[in-house]
Design brief:
The protein has 177 residues and is mainly alpha-helical. It contains 9 helices and 2 strands. Helix content is 64%, strand content 7%.
Length: 177
């Protein structure tokens, strides 16, 4: 648990770091990058918080800052497959929780969740388990979506507009719609 003063310091430090992180530049960085490691550390610290902080942290971020956690999430899922790592997968999915704190009405969050579901299966982790773990950090509406999506048995990348690509560095996931 982070005390109130330490939590404010944490959110201030994160805000300053994210203000200097360009979405386009970060998205194009090789995997893994220093930004991936830094965002992973931020997510890990977030996960040590309280229920109040799970709500307050995403609220402290501007929408474009939250979107960086969405990019991080998919990069972390890719690294999870490359490294066969449950920890990277969970961290990425919690990044998606932060990114989707506020879900726009027209956004189909299931499209982004399909990658995590696929990656869980690739590394022999139960999607139901990892989605339930991540749901602990989500607000009720998203927690319900996570729990339900984790239980699905009909998820494949193609139906959600994704492709798995083999590269010299390992797998990569690309949205193709």
């Amino acid at each position: 648990m982070i005390n109130g003063s330490a939590f404010r310091t944490f959110t201030d430090e994160v805000g300053q770091y994210l203000a200097g992180l360009n979405v386009v530049v970060y998205y194009a960085e090789p995997l893994p990058s220093a930004a991936d490691e830094r965002l992973r550390a931020i997510v890990a610290r977030f996960m040590k918080g309280t229920a109040v902080e799970y709500d307050a942290f995403p609220q402290s971020l501007a929408p474009e800052q939250r979107s960086l956690f969405g990019i991080y999430g998919h990069r972390a899922a890719t690294l999870a497959v490359r490294l066969n790592s449950h920890d990277w997968l969970l961290s990425g999915l919690v990044g998606a929780v932060i990114a989707n704190y506020t879900i726009p009405q027209k956004r189909n969050v299931e499209v982004s969740l399909a990658v995590y579901h696929h990656c869980a299966q690739k590394i022999s982790v139960s999607p139901q388990t990892v989605f339930a773990e991540a749901a602990q950090y989500a607000q009720p509406e998203l927690a319900e979506k996570l729990a339900a999506f984790g239980q699905r048995t009909d998820v494949n990348l193609k139906q959600f507009g994704w492709q798995e690509q083999k590269t010299a560095d390992g797998v990569r996931y690309k949205f193709s719609w």
